[in-house]
Amino acid sequence: MEPINYSHTVLRAFVRDIFLQMGCPPADADLAADVLVSADLRGVDSHGVARLSGYVRLMDLNRLNPKPSIQVVHETPGTAVVDGDAGLGLVVAPFAMRVAIEKARQVGTGWVTIRNSNHFGIAGYHAMVALPEGMIGFAMTNAGPLVAPTFSKDKLLGTNPIAVAIPAGEEPPFVLDMATTTAAYGKLEILQRKNQPTPTGWVQDAAGRPDTDAHAVRKGGALLPLGGDREHGSHKGYGLGAWVDIFSGVLAGANYGPWVPPFATAGFMDSAQQLVGSGTGHFVGAMRVDAFRPADEFAAHMDNWIRTFRKAEPVPGQTAVLVPGDPERLLEAHRRAEGIPLLPAVADGLRQLGERFGVAWPDQS
Amino acid sequence: MEPINYSHTVLRAFVRDIFLQMGCPPADADLAADVLVSADLRGVDSHGVARLSGYVRLMDLNRLNPKPSIQVVHETPGTAVVDGDAGLGLVVAPFAMRVAIEKARQVGTGWVTIRNSNHFGIAGYHAMVALPEGMIGFAMTNAGPLVAPTFSKDKLLGTNPIAVAIPAGEEPPFVLDMATTTAAYGKLEILQRKNQPTPTGWVQDAAGRPDTDAHAVRKGGALLPLGGDREHGSHKGYGLGAWVDIFSGVLAGANYGPWVPPFATAGFMDSAQQLVGSGTGHFVGAMRVDAFRPADEFAAHMDNWIRTFRKAEPVPGQTAVLVPGDPERLLEAHRRAEGIPLLPAVADGLRQLGERFGVAWPDQS
């Protein structure tokens, strides 16, 4: 049951070929594969190639349009609304980021809401698209309801991530990419495979009581907002997840709250019957650094900020203080060189997908 | 030692008169008093009239300019940088919000960084300035270093709040206003007065070990980021606080990280000697709802969002699920009617300030 390493290049080609066979245009298949494999490279395994079957399932459910006509349906000089035409969020979000970047070039910042989309992979990928432009990037998305607000038995929010990517000078960029829950659903799946309980503050049971069962969500329970309980600030995690939901859903004309179509759990949760908007929603943005401060000044102070935090004295038992984005970047360098570890069950699932679509699964490479 | 209630009108007039005596122009004194008393009305007592002495101390330390020339020093169609000229943040932030709102009117959204400012009171007040304009409002600020990043023994961040105010239709607005720590410093002060320990995950001691001493910060310890420890997601709270610090400090040309001048704790912590920017920094913004979606559609769906969350089934032992902003709004209605409770020690401090400035402290009213 030990994982086996696969080269990111080989995985990307495999995923691209599956998307091609699903009917995606070549450029879209390339991009979607890059977003998925980027998640594996950065260590967000729950949003990587292991989720490829989820996109296939969306297609089987007639919820995915492989050849979408993605369009700007409303705009001002600094804002836009994009309709994803039920396309892959993996492709729709980068389109919206390009619109945001162009707006930022014109008026300083650009902000785009997206409706009628699907799961967009890792938020961090989309935020980071702004970095080579010398801009700060943002990305948020809502997601199917797995999370109970503070004091709620009902699940009304997704894990609703926030990503902020900020360029530096000589130092690598600051990249915050966080679910607004104590733990992302993928962390639960790891514990499920190991038959281990969760720490406190991660989940509640079907009756709304604190729980430590890694299977709690499947049993009618819920993930908890960052903070875990009221005494530890869960109303803040709930507030952040709610903010993401309102920007991604209500402001975009997409579904929100309990109406957001499920993705990761589509197998055991039904999509809400009466919808309040179109598909899943996202919110992305770009800000020109020099709309606020000369770029070289900003870069020098960002370097100073990053170095100051890295050289802080660690607490007993720890060796270093990290800057947001450090762990993912270090892992990416490692996995680019050594390969991406996939559990045999994940590799088998991909092999079966390959058989269905006539795409050969690579041997260990 | 029971608190005594004072009318918000009487308190506002007293605070205004003190600011006038400090040399503030009448309009600034009015506004600053309104921001401070708003904190008391909304239950953020640690940012209300109890902090008036803090602003006087800033003046005594020559860090406060009562008659600032607040100016836009850089701008694009959608962004601006404001120099607060060492004025009260209570006055500088509303100036910047007006600039942001005007930008949003022109190009959809407006974003303003502020440097050379001081403590601005509650972030929520400034974000809510956008609501009567039919806009979404944002406010963030950095603050003196009381918070240790995940794995850090050193204090490098303030409690760095994020506020987001979103208008609805018939329902009252959504108002998120949160420190990015598990608990704000004011919560510690309440426990200090009661001689009670903190819950886990709020503070660490001077050696960087988990602690529950409400006096930990005064003893060289630190507040902890939302999440409390790594297992419960403190790297997310740290990431949020860092984001606020970079936007408020680095992007604005203000101080950041350990260089942000202290306010609440100015009595026992020295300001860092070599500064990296001008004063304290803020970041505010405004977004026109109809830059994304027709305002009436948005309002109707916000009402639906709010009602959906309010009617969620509560967990055992709780009576209702709240929407961000509900507790503060309910408390404000109560305190407007019944008065603002001040501890005798707080009232005595204000009476002494009044004596210094020749302003009569109101009898119980």
Descriptive notes:
The structure is a homodimer of 365-residue chains. Chain A has 365 residues and is α+β, with helices and mostly antiparallel strands. Chain A folds into 3 domains: 1-67 and 337-365, Malate/L-lactate/L-sulpholactate dehydrogenase, four-helix barrel (Hypothetical Oxidoreductase Yiak, Chain: A, domain 1), CATH 1.10.1530; 68-182 and 230-299, Ribosomal Protein S8, Chain: A, domain 1; 300-330, no CATH class. Helices cover 37% and strands 16% of the residues of chain A. Chain A has 10 helices and 12 strands. The first copy, chain A, has helices at residues 8-21, 26-41, 52-60, 89-107, 123-128, 185-194, 234-250, 295-310, 326-338, 344-357; strands at 4-6, 71-76, 79-83, 109-117, 135-141, 162-166, 174-178, 203-204, 210-211, 222-223, 280-288, 340-342. In chain A, the strands form 3 sheets. Chain A has a 7-stranded mixed sheet with strand order 2-3-4-11-5-6-7. A 3-stranded antiparallel sheet of chain A has the order 9-8-10, with no helix packed on it. A two-stranded antiparallel ribbon of chain A has the order 1-12. In chain A, a hairpin with a 7-residue loop joins β6 (162-166) and β7 (174-178). The model of chain A has no long low-confidence stretch (mean pLDDT 95). At the A-B interface, β4, β7, α7 and α8 of A face β4, β7, α7 and α8 of B.
Summary?
Two copies of one chain form a homodimer. By secondary structure, chain A is an alpha+beta fold.
What key phrases describe this protein's structure?
homodimer, 365 residues, alpha+beta
